[in-house]
Amino acid sequence: MMRPVTMRSALEAARFAARFAARSFSYSSELAADRPAKTALHALHVERGGKMVDFGGWDMPVVYSDATIVESTLHTRAAASLFDVSHMGQIRVHGADRAAFMESIVVGDIQGLDENFGRLSVMTNETGGVIDDLVVSRREGHIYTVVNAGCFDKDWAHMSASADAFRGGGGDVTLELMEEHSLVALQGPKAAAVLESLSGQDLSPLPFMYGRELTLDGGVCQITRCGYTGEDGFEISVHIRIPQLRFDSLTNPCR
Q: CATH 3.30.1360.120 in the chain, residues?
């Protein structure tokens, strides 16, 4: 999947989540508007001195004024850094036949996945051509998938058309675009320690690609132990209207 654009290091970005509820946005309406679209954290990126560029149709920071890309990378390797990956598309798949539906459009055993586990897969067209790669996870009562920002338009169109055809054949499936959720990734060898300090729970038993609900500093989030930096890490899906969700206490653990 596309490499996420770093939100500098967690030393400075740690206070971002108090502003999650400051601005709501509709994923679909943003995409329908003039590009590039903006994540819920756009104002914070600009405030932190981010150099904004068009990344997959989204206005994202490529570097910050007080840290080079190399410095941010080294910090991620040594401690933990925070990434804004809210430009990615988050989708829930519901219905009794949801696993069979996903297997009709991706390459991989979805019905055989244990609950709360996910895997990287590939979405294909009717002739086997690759449309996009994506992560597919089995959750209680639904399937959760994350698709690439630059491919979202064609991914959503293909999934929607395929769901219509699947229902036409008698299948039970519905799609839910998670319009009011943002996605951030905490990556680095100290990522687990940071989340443990906010949740009060031991996360060491959680294996790679395992997801669960977790309360972080008073806000209920969905976390998955995964990422694309080569380090340990977690992707955190959070509703942008959650009040009082702060990451101030990330600062010390990330040093």
A: 5-88+180-250
